[in-house]
C-alpha cells in the first residue's frame, strides 16, 4: 500500500469523537526505533500507512506476518493494542541460485534415471511462491516436480531416452520456475548436460535431516555441526564439495561452511528474538556434478540478553494537591 493509504478508522472502531483524539493527545507508539509504519490522522481518526511495508523484510518465510502497534490516549491514560496482519502479494519472481546448472551424465545411464535440480527460491509465500517447473521440449529429458512436507517444491530431471555420446556430446535446456500469483512470475536457468563415459553414484548424506541446538550468544567460529556425505565412486568421481543451497539473505552473514569438511560454523551474531529456528539447505556435489541435499535445522536457545523496555515514551498526568489518599 502507498504512503497515506487508509488501513482503518480507529476513532470509529473505538467510538471516539474526532475532538477527543486531539484533547487526549492520541498517538501511535511502537517498540521499534527504526521505522514507523503507520500513524493516526487526528483530523479523521484514520490509521494510515507512513512507510512502505515489505512483508519479506519483516517476516521472511513466516506464514503469518503481524505488525504490533499501540494507540495511546491521555487524560485518562488508555492503551489500545493494534495488530496489523501484513498480507503477501506476488511482488517477487522465482530466482535460481545459479544461472547455469551443469550435469555430467554417463551415456550408460538408464531410462528413468533422475537428477535432482537446483531449487528456485521465491521470497513470497503460499500460492505466490514457486508452484511448478517446466523444461523446454526435447527428446531426452522430462521433469518431475515433488512437494515436500512443508510445501516446498523441487524438480528432478528424468531421462526418457538413452544418451549416445557419439551422436550428441552435450545438451542445453532451459529450465523455468513459475509461481502461482496473478500476474504469474517466472525465473529461468540453463541446464547444461555433458555426456560422459561413467559416474554412476551420487553423494549420499549420513542423515537427510540434521538437528542441533545452539545458544544465541555463541561466539564466531563456534562449530554448529558437521555434515557428512559419502560417494561410492573413486577418484575425482568420489571427491565431494559442500555448499549452501539457496541460503536466505538473512543467514548469509551468520554461518560459514567448509567446502571440504562439511563443518558449519557461526560467522555472525545469532539472535533468538529474530529467529528461534533456522533451516539451512546443504548441497553435496561430486567431481562430475552429481548432487544430493540435506537439511540442517538449528534450534536457537534463548539467553537473558534483553532488558525490559518501556514503550510509553512520556505521560502528562497532573495531580491536585488536595487529592485523597488511595486515589489511583
UniProtKB/TrEMBL annotation:
Pfam (any one): Cadherin_2
Topology in the lipid bilayer is annotated as: Single-pass membrane protein
- Primary localization class, coarse: membrane
Question: Which intervals hold domain Cadherin?
Answer: 40-96, 97-205, 206-310
Q: Which PROSITE patterns match?
A: CADHERIN_1 (PS00232), CADHERIN_2 (PS50268)
Whether Transmembrane helix counts among this entry's keywords is yes
Give the record's keywords alphabetically.
Answer: Calcium, Cell adhesion, Glycoprotein, Membrane, Repeat, Transmembrane, Transmembrane helix
Signal peptide (residue range): none
Q: Where in the cell is it found?
A: Membrane
Please tell me whether the keyword Metal-binding is annotated for this protein: no
Protein name per UniProt: Cadherin domain-containing protein
Amino acid at each position: 500500500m502507498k504512503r497515506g493509504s487508509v488501513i482503518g478508522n480507529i476513532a470509529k472502531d473505538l467510538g471516539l469523537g474526532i475532538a477527543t483524539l486531539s484533547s487526549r493527545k492520541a498517538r501511535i507508539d511502537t517498540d521499534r526505533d527504526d521505522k514507523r509504519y503507520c500513524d493516526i490522522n487526528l483530523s479523521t481518526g484514520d490509521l494510515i500507512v507512513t512507510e512502505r511495508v515489505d512483508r519479506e523484510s519483516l517476516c521472511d518465510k513466516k506464514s503469518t506476518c503481524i505488525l504490533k502497534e499501540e494507540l495511546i490516549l491521555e487524560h485518562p491514560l488508555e492503551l489500545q493494542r493494534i495488530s496489523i496482519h501484513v498480507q503477501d502479494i506476488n511482488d517477487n519472481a522465482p530466482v535460481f541460485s545459479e544461472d547455469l546448472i551443469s550435469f555430467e551424465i554417463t551415456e550408460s545411464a538408464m531410462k528413468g534415471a533422475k537428477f535432482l535440480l537446483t531449487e528456485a527460491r521465491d521470497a513470497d509465500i503460499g500460492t505466490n511462491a514457486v508452484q511448478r517447473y517446466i523444461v523446454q521440449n526435447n527428446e531426452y529429458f522430462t521433469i518431475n516436480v515433488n512437494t515436500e512436507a512443508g510445501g516446498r517444491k523441487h524438480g528432478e530431471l528424468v531421462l526418457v531416452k538413452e544418451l549416445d555420446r557419439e551422436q550428441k556430446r552435450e545438451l542445453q535446456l532451459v529450465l523455468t520456475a513459475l509461481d502461482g500469483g496473478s500476474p504469474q512470475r517466472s525465473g529461468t536457468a540453463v541446464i547444461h548436460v555433458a555426456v560422459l563415459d561413467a559416474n554412476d553414484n551420487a553423494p549420499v548424506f549420513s542423515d537427510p535431516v540434521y538437528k542441533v541446538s545452539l545458544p544465541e550468544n555463541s561466539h564466531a567460529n563456534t562449530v554448529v555441526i558437521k555434515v557428512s556425505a559419502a560417494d561410492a565412486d573413486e577418484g575425482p568421481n568420489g571427491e565431494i564439495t559442500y555448499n549452501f543451497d539457496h541460503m536466505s539473505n538473512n543467514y548469509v552473514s551468520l554461518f560459514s561452511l567448509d567446502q571440504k569438511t562439511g563443518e558449519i560454523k557461526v560467522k555472525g551474531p545469532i539472535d533468538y528474538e529474530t529467529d528461534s529456528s533456522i533451516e539451512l539447505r546443504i548441497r553435496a556435489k561430486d567431481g562430475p556434478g552429481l548432487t544430493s541435499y540435506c537439511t540442517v535445522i538449528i534450534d536457537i536457545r534463548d539467553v537473558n540478553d534483553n532488558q525490559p523496555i518501556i514503550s510509553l515514551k512520556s505521560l502528562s498526568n497532573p495531580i491536585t494537591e488536595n487529592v485523597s489518599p488511595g486515589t489511583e
